[in-house]
Specification:
Blueprint: H1 2-28, H2 32-60, H3 67-99, H4 112-118
Helix pairs in contact: 1-2, 2-3
Length: about 120
């Protein structure tokens, strides 16, 4: 059970690092779309790794008794839900901002979506 505890602590630490990098990306990156990418990667990397690490920590603590299975199950289900919903939500937000011209598209080199939407 020591391996589960150590691995869980490492995953929580890596998840915290992802969250820190995502926060720095939100502060430093220019433009809406780059910031949205940083926020999504922070959410997926930070939250999911932290939840999986918490599940492993719970499974490694025998003092919790049968409650550790509930905690681990809840963490795993939450991680799966985040993995499914965060990218689709980010994609929907980016597409809505793109089609409404709500955010400037400054560093854009090639715009394949404009050709697809116009039917070219």
């Amino acid at each position: 059970m020591i391996i589960l505890t150590v691995l869980g602590a490492v995953l929580v630490a890596v998840g915290a690092f992802y969250e820190l990098v995502g926060a720095l990306g939100l502060l430093k990156l220019p433009g809406f779309f780059l910031r949205l990418h940083a926020a999504t990667m922070s959410c997926i990397g930070g939250s999911v790794l932290s939840l999986i690490g918490t599940a492993l920590l719970a499974l490694g603590l025998e003092e919790m008794g049968t409650q550790r299975l509930y905690v681990a199950g809840t963490c795993i289900v939450s991680a799966v839900i985040i993995l499914l919903l965060a990218p689709s939500g980010s994609h929907s937000l980016a597409k809505a901002a793109y089609t409404a011209n709500a955010a400037p598209k400054e560093p854009l080199e090639y715009d394949a979506l404009r050709e697809k939407l116009r039917g070219e």
